[in-house]
Amino acid sequence: METVRLTMAQALVQFLDNQFVELDGAEHKFVNAMFGVFGHGCVVGVGQALQQGGHSIRFLQGKNEQNMALAATAFAKQKNRLEIIPCVSSIGPGAMNMVTAAGCATANRIPLLLLPGDTFACRQPDPVLQQAEFFHSFGQTVTDAFRGVCHYFDRIERPEQLMTAAMHAMRVLTDPADTGAVCLAMPQDVEGEAYDYPVSFLRKRVWHMDRRMPTDSQVERAAEIIRNAKRPIVIAGGGVRYSYAHDALKAFCEGTGIPFAETQAGKSVLPWDHPLNLGGIGVTGGEAANVIARSADVVLAVGTRLSDFTTSSKWLFDEHAKVIGLNICPFDAIKMDAEPMICDAREGLIGLAKALAGYRYEESAKVQAAISKWNKTVDDWYAAESSRGLTQTKALGIINGFMQPGDIAVGSAGSLPGDMQRLFRPTGRDAYHMEYGFSNMGYETNGALGVKLACPDREVYTFFGDGTYLMAHSELVTCVQEGLRVHFCLFDNSGWGCIENLQNNQGTPTFGTVFRFRNPETGELDGAAIPLDFAKNAEGYGLKTYSIHTEKELKAALTDALKQDRPVLYDIKVVPGSMTPGYESWWRVGVAEVSTQAPVQKAYKDLMDHVKDTRKF
């Protein structure tokens, strides 16, 4: 057997450099770059292997481990899971910083390869710098925390173990039904240890992402359910996008007349103004989708996890409505007592379209009336004025109207995802990139880097609040370093406005959710608002920045930004509380069962009344 002597880290780099995926006859190189924040657990291991050369992997210098991993997650999502950026870190806190990002990737079914450093496998220098010792087990290290948030975890304690670990990592990373975060923990001594690796392990390897076809019986069972329905609805989830089922969805809906609603991940697979597009559905959805869904007798859920935001905590659908779960993942396909169609979304829709030839939706006039009414509501929100200043929805409408076909909108957390799913009108296919499986604050600011790396020729606008900026914005510096023009749209409403709104709606007065000075008279955080100049802060990082208080200033900034050769930040001061409300939806949260406050008592009663109307599974 032909072998080559390499360190474990050198073999890992060469292995990753030779991984490819194939879909529909087209090959895609799976790894072209690697993020890293070097420390003593990796700089002389993977760092040395990358610097030595002999590969084509580009090194991207992260500034915070969690944030670079969020950028890598966004990159893989925007690439429809056909390419990844692995993330390497040192041991201890550097490794632990990536746990949150691992949870985000796993929740969203996005492949993310994490390569944290670890303590010494030989244990001779223990305890080493940044090692946490566990008295019940010498074999446990902090990287065991990844086990709970990864689809695959391994610790490479001997250099030859890399071969099985790497193969299983790729198995999961390239499996559309079982993908998510993967962690290969690397003890720092093992990273530098050598082994005679078989050349065959390092050769080019193509992982075939073959489409799973539906069986005839699956198609017929689902088609029979729809044939007997009068008011079916389609929910288009992220799986429509990942399986490139855009045209299949269009053909299915147009052929049957069945309207479709969008999840956050499914938005922009078809144009916002398609005559059968009801818009966003669920807690952050609009009136058209939720009214039609409430009366639906069949729900065809395509490529969606059916999260609580999509189903309004299982309250949205009639208890007698039948659900069909068209999903590549069996775990998702059977949710809500669904009739499963476990197959590729595109192939499943094509099969159903053929089986339902001649079927027509019976209540198209009602659908069109709902869509027309909702479009008028969106127009009104985008035109909303306030005597107190620029409203959040007005600012969002201005940016939306300015963006060109193909420009990408990014979002994740706070009140903006609700406004965006309800109001935002994407101007191109796959032009709306929302992480709402984990609603990870910081994804917006850092994920925008990943989206821009995935689509360098497209303008990327990312939407977030001041709360997110304060939590995680390190990769703005990486955008400057790489010369990437990303548009950072910061909506400053002086706090966590989304959670304040939730808090108030459930009967509790504002407490701990706004950014105010501590009041010496009350002892509480209810003093004057803290004046924060985010434009000045970002300017110090090297961005072109704009301080915005008016519609005129925002429009001028958007125009000027396109002349810049670096990232830009719009510090938009918006009226607090000027976001959209819910429409014909409900979200279950844990309201206090007992309270001395009458509004909280009322909120609990409302909770119990809604629970009575929810589906049980």
Question: What are the salient characteristics of this protein?
Answer:
617 residues; alpha/beta; Rossmann fold; 6-stranded parallel beta sheet; 25 helices; 37% helix; 18% strand
Description:
- The protein folds into 3 domains: 3-208, Rossmann fold, CATH 3.40.50; 216-371, 3-Layer(aba) Sandwich (Rossmann fold); 383-494 and 530-573, Rossmann fold, CATH 3.40.50.
- It has 25 helices and 23 strands.
- Strand 22, helix 24 and strand 23 (568-573) form a beta-alpha-beta unit.
- It has 617 residues and is α/β, with parallel strands linked by helices.
- Helix 3 packs parallel to helix 5 and helix 9 packs across helix 15 (345-355).
- The strands form 5 sheets. Strands 5-4-6-7-9-8 form a 6-stranded parallel β-sheet, sandwiched between helices.
Summarize it.
The protein is α/β, with parallel strands linked by helices.
| Number of separate domains | 3
CATH architecture of the largest domain: 3-Layer(aba) Sandwich
Strand composition percent: 15-25%
- The end-to-end span amounts to 55 Å
Task: Please specify the SSE layout and strand pairing.
Layout: E1 3-7, H1 8-17, E2 19-23, E3 26-29, E4 33-36, H2 46-52, E5 58-61, H3 65-78, E6 87-89, H4 93-96, H5 99-107, E7 112-118, E8 152-155, H6 162-173, E9 181-187, H7 188-192, E10 194-198, H8 199-202, E11 205-208, H9 216-227, E12 232-236, H10 238-242, H11 246-256, E13 260-262, E14 277-280, H12 287-294, E15 298-302, H13 308-311, E16 322-327, H14 330-333, E17 339-342, H15 345-355, H16 364-382, H17 392-402, E18 408-411, H18 416-423, E19 432-434, H19 443-454, E20 460-465, H20 466-471, H21 475-482, E21 486-492, H22 497-505, H23 534-541, E22 544-548, H24 551-561, E23 568-573, H25 598-611
Parallel strand pairs: 2-11, 4-5, 4-6, 6-7, 7-9, 8-9, 12-13, 12-15, 13-14, 15-16, 16-17, 18-19, 18-20, 20-21, 21-23, 22-23
Antiparallel strand pairs: 1-10, 2-3
